[in-house]
Amino acid sequence: MLTVETIRKVRIAYHRDGKSIRKTAKDLRLSRNTVRKVVRSDQTAFEYRRKKQPFPKLGAYIEQLEQRLEEDQPLPKKRRRTAQALFEELQNQGYCGGYDSVRRYVKRWRRHQQHMSSQVFIPLTFDPAEAFQFDWSHELVQMGGMPVKAKAAHLRLCHSRMFLVIAYPRETQEMVFDAHMRAFEFFGGVCRKGIYDNLKAAVNKVLSGKERNFNNRFSQLCSHYLFEPIACTPAAGWEKGQVENQIGLVRRRFFTPRLKVTDFAELNAYLMERCIGWAKTQRHPTMPQKTVWQVFQEEKPYFIKLSPRFDGYAERPARVSSSSLVTYDRNRYSVDCNHVGKTAQMRVYADRIQIVRNGQLIGEHDRHFGRGKTIFNPWHYLPVLERKPGALRNGAPFRNWCLPEGIERVQQLLKRRYADWDRQFVGILQAIALYGPEAIEDACWQALKMNVISKEAILNLVHRSRDQHRQVVVDLPPHLVLKQEPVADCRRYDQLLKERHHVAQ
Q1: Which positions of the chain have pLDDT values less than 50?
Q2: pTM of this structure
């Protein structure tokens, strides 16, 4: 192929210097036909394009190859087969050509498809409080000295461009609810519409057009806050382009370099601070005379009034095991042992788990996100201790049991003084259910001062304390009211003893 430099030399020699075609060809060591072609075409560059690409070995397999490429086209990029994988599949079908032929064909086919599918995007505009956009991203952080993949929820107001980013350990429905509640409280109100992709936490089924079958719990969230959910067309991310662009901005500005935090609470406090700082310094794209924060303040009066917090839990059925435990997310949580073998409902929140049966709360714990953990509440097993007090010694729920200091000290002394300390201490624990922890702890402190450490002594002190607090006031008629209160004086009894001894003599 003739280079641009060679063409330049030919044209100068012929047109400027007046050399003949033969002389030019001799000087430049080119064929006369080549020089003649350059001179007659009057072009400064030649580009060779093959009119028809022969595929001597691949030709018989092109149809199969294109079929596989069309199958992969709707899939996400990460799930599409590579040229190497397609080459190996064709080899299994009998293809004996080289890998480069397959690679070049795949590259050309995908470039053509990308060109054919290119679209013209129309800029969108939104009125104040008209809509917000929601999406997830995955960000790497160093938490507690370990690398952790945090799931970041992004909520962005379409008019003012104000946004909030909240990080979670999971990307589940209860996290979606919590992100909405936090964002609405941060914004101070709610927009009329929410724009989403077809996330599983919200959409059960994609119907024709914009119609969607939203799940019941997500519909309750929308109904509670009075906004209308709108789901994007599949593979049409430009319909929520603001939040899509925001993900890249947040990743570059907020998460690079990799953040080092202790927990999610610290991470979310940092993200909120950065969101506010960004909004106060960033110019609004359509109103450059104002910052995003200023436009956000102007948008606030248009919001729908914020409703009380939504009870944002995801409900799951659960069966109470013989160990009085229910399982969720590969962790186990204790419940009241009176419900062993029964079916209950787990209300899973972003930060806690409640176990409910027949409308009664039978267990509540902080949520844990590790695996293989068992979370006990020792009080759930108190009825069992009445029948099996020996379980207090080695029972897993009672390891590292954090009791009030006074009760804890009584337990240690009972262990030293009595062989049946466990039975006595169980009796004290059962009294807590009747009289409350404060009354029992006060009695324990009194027993410690008097050095009378036993179940009977402590229960007696509790009863005496309760009797003292029960002062019955009786209205007596005037003639029965004592004018002079009697005085208890034991010396009078001593005098009677002396008189009796004198008479006996």
Answers
A1: none
A2: 0.67
